[in-house]
Amino acid sequence: MSLISVRDLEVRHGLLRAVRGISFDIAKGETVAFVGANGAGKTTLLRALAGAHLPLSGSVAFSGSNVTMVPSHLRVRSGIALVPEGRRLFGDLSVTENMLLGRAAHRSGNWTLDSVMEALPQLKPVRNALAKNLSGGQQQAVAIGRALMTNPALLLLDEISLGLSPAAIDLVYAAINKLIKAGTTIVLVEQNLDRAIAVADRLICMLEGSVVLEGQAKSLERVQITNAYFGLGSSRRAGGH
Ligand code: ATP
Fold first, then answer.
1. pTM
2. Which residue from 63, 50, 93, 79 is spatially nearest to 150, judged by alpha carbons?
3. Does 171 score more than 90 pLDDT?
4. Is 238 a residue whose pLDDT tops 50?
5. How close is the Cα of 83 to the center of ligand 1, in Å?
6. Å from CA of 168 to ligand 1 middle
7. Mean pLDDT calculated for residue range 136-154
8. How far is the CA of 159 from the centre of ligand 1 (A)?
9. All domains of the chain, ordered by start, with CATH?
10. Are 92 and 132 in contact (CB under 8 A)?
């Protein structure tokens, strides 16, 4: 059974059809990257999966339950955690305090403050610092840590490398790779194609709200992906699944 199953999802901003009738399934333990140009609808889709933006039509089933219209605070309790674009930390709270906010989801599991600090060791020396005084890479790590503290079954990561230095991106992705090895199911939106291909099992390319290419990340050819990215390709599926 799929962990998350999306059917004919239509999500709008007013009259704008940001996500246009998308369908896909994600299995437990899978890592799926959504790629595509600015404005393709990736963030809107992720927010709809998290319940932060309710769809106009279509359905989202999570662990076999229909959650299409379930709001975000209840979806967190059922195991869906979103690391939003721009991190959205509380700048005047410390690293530890920001992370403890994840406990509000009231979910038990292996992730505790100590195990999260082990997975994100760059945070250990700054655990008492205010979030607003951290570097971009450290802030991104806090945002991921806060999501882990909810003990999610599904982790949604939106543009986690945006605005970070290459060294900071390496650290953040080292943590993501640890999560993948631990069996976490991850859906990420990533502008950086190389990172997306390297980390994901499967790649889904969006263009103007629709899926234009989908396949195993390692078997898609670079030219197929870039064609789809810019609307030059025609194949919906490649590389099998
Ligand atoms: P980016 O990489 O720029 O974040 P994206 O693929 O994540 O792009 P979305 O941010 O989901 O795309 O945007 C999809 C479409 O919806 C775009 O046309 C965008 O302008 C529009 N849009 C996004 N957010 C809003 C909003 N709050 N109000 C109105 N239109 C919006």
1. 0.91
2. 79
3. no
4. yes
5. 17
6. 26
7. 90
8. 13
9. 2-238 (3.40.50.300)
10. yes
Helix (H) or strand (E) holding 21: strand 16-27
* 36 in contact with ligand 1, CB cutoff 6 A: yes
The fraction of the chain above a pLDDT of 90, given in percent, is 57
User: Which residue's CA is minimally distant from atom 27 of ligand 1?
Assistant: 13
Closest atom, ligand 1, to C-alpha of 19: 14
Q: Is residue 107 over pLDDT 80? A: no
Is residue 141 in contact with ligand 1, taking CB distance under 6 Å? no
Distance (Å) from CA 17 to ligand 1 centroid? 10
Q: Which of 10, 12, 17, 42 to mutate to test the pocket of ligand 1 (most atoms within 8 A of CB)?
A: 42
Contacts of 179 (CB under 8 A, 6+ apart): 119, 148, 155, 186
User: What's the rounded Cα separation, in Å, for the pair 12 and 44?
Assistant: 8
Residue 41 in contact with ligand 1 by CB distance below 6 A: yes
How far does residue 59's CA lie from ligand 1's centre (Å)? Answer: 20
Residue 235 has pLDDT above 60, yes or no: no
- Digit-coded pLDDT (tens) for 4-62: 999 999 999 999 999 999 999 999 999 999 999 999 999 999 999 999 999 999 999 99
* Cα(103)–Cα(183) distance, integer angstroms: 21
